[in-house]
User: What shape does this take?
Amino acid sequence: MLAPTLLTLRVVAVDAPTSLIKSVILEAQDDALLPGYEPGAHLQVAIPSADGGVSQWRSYSLINLDPAVDTRAGVTAYRLGIRREDDGRGGSRHMHALKAGDTLSVRAPVNHFPLAAPPSVLLIAGGIGITPMAAMAAELSAQKRDYALHFSGRSRDALPFVDELRGFAGERLVLHADDDPATRLSIDALLDGAQVNQPIYVCGPAGMIDAVLAAARQRGWHDCDLHYELFTETAPHAGDTAFEVELKPSGKVLTVPADQSLLDTLLDHGADVMYDCRAGYCGLCSTRVCEGEIDHRDTYLSDADKAGGKVMQVCVSRCRSGRLVLDL
Assistant: This one.
């Protein structure tokens, strides 16, 4: 696998579209054109370790709110939207502390959430999940394709970028607020009014995504028409226990605590692991398993791959048998 292109970018502007969300604009230090990207793509940003250890990477979707801009051809700036998570792992706190003139190390854009080309698309965003959806809506508007964008949050004031979205989406943008019974999102009502197997793209909290997928499947949608991206990392499960992992090439043995992912344990001990989504759907952290029973928790591997027991997604999956041996 080729190493990703690394970029050093400077922060040129930071604003706060809501009380919990910061919008950060980045440019090249030499004002050069930045690598292009397709709707749904994201940047990985290096977040320094609080204790001076190895930096870890966090993914943030690239926002485009101008249908006239062809982001594939390269752009002068990247725009990110980051929701503050006080109980998170520190990435959002670092990003919220940025100011103009700061620099960030990033990996060039990648896309695990591509927009296909059907005639009519249903976009559903929850909270900060609007960031990839904004770029998709801009693309669909530029191509004069039919779509609807349903944007939900706890309150109307919690929804960022609404004026910009309304500027090009018009009536295709439908806002939903949990605290307003008249506009609260009803997934059942939304899908009852949609055409079965109309492509659905959904991004936001895991609970909302699960509800959309379950309701669509119940109504006959095929999985190939259901596209999603999580904006939360998978949390530990009740009953998770510690286990050992041996790195076969070196013979090094590590203990994975019950409340920590295998990926984070590997990173804390300097293992060279590629990763991105941290939610088990992108496939970047696929690792060969030499021994041990895997507790698969990803959505990337096929049922056959999971049954074979020879590969796992170390960002979310764990061990059932107390010990794993990895070819890492």
Residues 243-326 form a domain with the Ubiquitin-like (UB roll) fold (CATH 3.10.20.30). The longest strand covers residues 6-15.
